[in-house]
Amino acid sequence: MKWSRYSRLFQSERNGWLLYSSASRAFLRISGEQVETLQQIMNDPEGYDYSQAPLLYMQLRSLGILVEDGKDEELYNIIKMRHLTALYADQSLTLTIAVTSSCNFDCSYCFEANHQGHIMSEETEDRVMRFIKSFQSPILHITWYGGEPMLALERMRSINRRLKDMGKRFDASMITNGYLLTQDKVKYLNELNISYLQITLDGKKETHDARRYLAGGAGTYDRIVSNIDAVMKSDFRGTLHIRVNVDGRNDEEFAYVYQMMQQKYPQDFGRRITVYPGFVRGEGHPDSGCFFDPVGQGEFLSRMMEKYQIAPLYLYPQRPSSGCVLTKRNAFVTGPDGELYKCWDDVGNEERIVGSVDCRNDWNMGLIAEGMTGCSFLDDAKCRECFYFPVCNGGCHRVRQNNLHSDKIQSTCTYFKGNIERLLELHYEMKNRQKAKEPNRDKS
User: Fold this and answer.
1) Which of 2, 81, 405, 419 is most buried as measured by Cβ atoms within 10 A of its Cβ?
2) What distance separates the 2 farthest-apart alpha carbons in the chain?
């Protein structure tokens, strides 16, 4: 019998002693009289006489705080099995379609160099459709991407019509800067079967316009806010997600955007519209010192909660997702010429092309394998022994892949690392406030 490496007992200055398990995700407050007993068990789980506290022993076992020898290693294998099963499943095809490499913006932090690209041709559309048809997967997930996909609205509509004619069951997302999504274009969102729409707003008008401006330098804030309003007043059936790219220069303005949307759309906020932070990576940027590492991300989330009572991302660790395009077997990004990539960040980078929609044989399998398995956190010894392993998916795998070829190693750790006790404390207090607001129930 041993104290699981995924269990942590800690003292909160405001809330007393708290116990958390990243394996079972159990979280509870410990009474003062139990603390000494728990500390004794934690320090010597084999030698403690559990006959003195049989009920506590049963609770610790059921919650995964105390485990038999080898159980932590067994859990690692179970998590790895589940993760790989999801990554290699072929029930669905996930395809990001960059219908154009052109963009009407010239954002200061953009990683795509070519804003004067072109729109996917009809001939390339035919090739993409054949590529989709070659997969037997019954479910299709489409993400419209660019450049700016709204520059190629008619190409999206054409592909969408052909997918419906093909009889494919599919859902769609769109990543757009929002500038061209005017009132007369909003009607196409439902036609395109879009369930997830992302638009970026980087703070107050002055800040946003200094970061996200048109190719000629003009500001974009007023037009985007107006277009967001058009979406929310329409019959759009999906959800609108406002992304705020946050770094050390505009972090306090996240709360401004969050509260503005909350006040403008009180009935729909958290349901039809959400606001969340996007943490922009700073490699190669002259102001890279302003960008947050994972610890800084956690500190930002703590500050939002303590100062504004805003929880834009989870304060409590969730079970990890099943991976990204880079790590999934049936997931690809196609550029406007039909070239294939394994990450959104790679679009337009010839060195990162892994194949073409025309041929499924002559692919760069070495590059694909490196992204899927060569940099996997599942085979990382440090990750395997990490307290956060059950609630972490290894972070950005594109960064992990970059780390294989760089002397400047970037952290891919979860934002909970270095902040777990503070975030759990805030989560505990938030839940208590929510309970206090619940109407009293008849206890008879």
Assistant:
1) 419
2) 77
State the number of CA atoms in the 13 A half-sphere of 380 facing the CB: 21
What is the strand order of the sheet 339-341 is part of? 273-279, 239-246, 194-200, 169-175, 139-145, 92-98, 331-334, 339-341, 355-356
Q: Give CA torsion, residues 247, 113, 231, 153, to 10 deg.
A: -170
Query: What gap in Å lies between CA 94 and CA 334, rounded to an integer?
Result: 11
Q: Give the pLDDT of residue 438.
A: 79
Element containing residue 7 per DSSP (H, E): strand 7-12
- Phi, psi torsion values for 437, nearest 5 degrees: -85, -15
Supply 267's token pair. Answer: 């009935």
- CA 379 distance to own-chain centroid: 22
What pLDDT is attached to residue 286?
41
Cite the beta strand spans of 201-344 per DSSP E: 239-246, 273-279, 331-334, 339-341
325 three-class SS: coil
- CA pair distance 154, 124, nearest whole angstrom: 14
Output the pTM of the full model. Answer: 0.92
| Contact call for residues 318 and 388 (beta carbons, < 8 A) | no
- Phi first, then psi, for residue 7 (nearest 5°) are -115, 140
Helices 294-308 and 420-437: crossing angle in degrees, nearest 10, is: 30
Q: Which amino acid is at 422?
A: R
N-to-C CA span, the chain: 43
Closest residue by Cα to residue 9 from 47, 36, 33: 36
Give the pLDDT confidence score for residue 389 in this predicted structure: 96
- On whether the CB atoms of residues 147 and 348 are closer than 8 A, the answer is no
Cβ–Cβ under 8 Å, residues 367 and 137? no
Instruction: Report which of 179, 173, 177 is spatially closest to residue 144, judged by C-alpha positions.
Output: 173
The backbone torsions φ and ψ at residue 398, rounded to the nearest 5 degrees and listed phi first, read -70, -40
Query: Domain 70-444, what fold?
Result: TIM Barrel (3.20.20)
What integer is the mean pLDDT of 185-190? Answer: 97
Q: Compute CA distances 409 → 73, 122, 327, whole Å.
A: 28, 42, 20
- For residue 360, the tally of other CB atoms under 10 A from its CB is 12
Cβ contacts of residue 308 below 8 Å, gap of 6+? Answer: 255, 258, 259
Written as six digits, the tokens of 33 are 């009289």
321 CB-near residues (< 8 Å, 6+ apart): 393
Percentage helix, strand, coil, to 5, in the chain?
40, 20, 45
- Between CA 298 and CA 319 the distance in angstroms is 17
Residue 109 pLDDT: 81
